[in-house]
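Problem 12. The chain below contains 139 residues. Write out its predicted structure in token notation.
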Amino acid sequence: MRYLLFASHGKLAEGILHSVEMITGKQENVWTISAYVDEEKDLHSQISDVINKLGKEDELIVVSDIFGGSVNNEFMNLLGDKRIHLIAGLNLPLVIELVSMRNMETDTLRLIKTALSNSKNSIKYCNLEIEIDTEDEEF
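Solution.
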């Protein structure tokens, strides 16, 4: 089984999942970690709770909010576990790509590479896009 986990400082991860489900419908096997929100739950124990749910053959694609941030760094320590794949840069286009393709693509590395490529293409400076469209119309 392949699982997705969105992890962030604060409630960004929960918000991303909420937005994804508004667009794509309810998602199974997708979890979130909202770090530093509840003083009763430390990040290490939140991560351990998720890892303990995984079976021997399962895979977990983790998408953290910021490369080099404390949430990302906690997961970096787990990359010796071949079941875990870590992506930094949690954003809605990336997550929609992962959710949309995860059941169609059996190769996890290819899934991640495709999702990264496609989501990067969605980042635009709209002012410049309008200028380019205007220039194209003048010809």
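Discussion. The CA atoms of residues 22 and 59 lie 25 Å apart. Students who got a different answer should revisit the alignment rule from Section 12.3.
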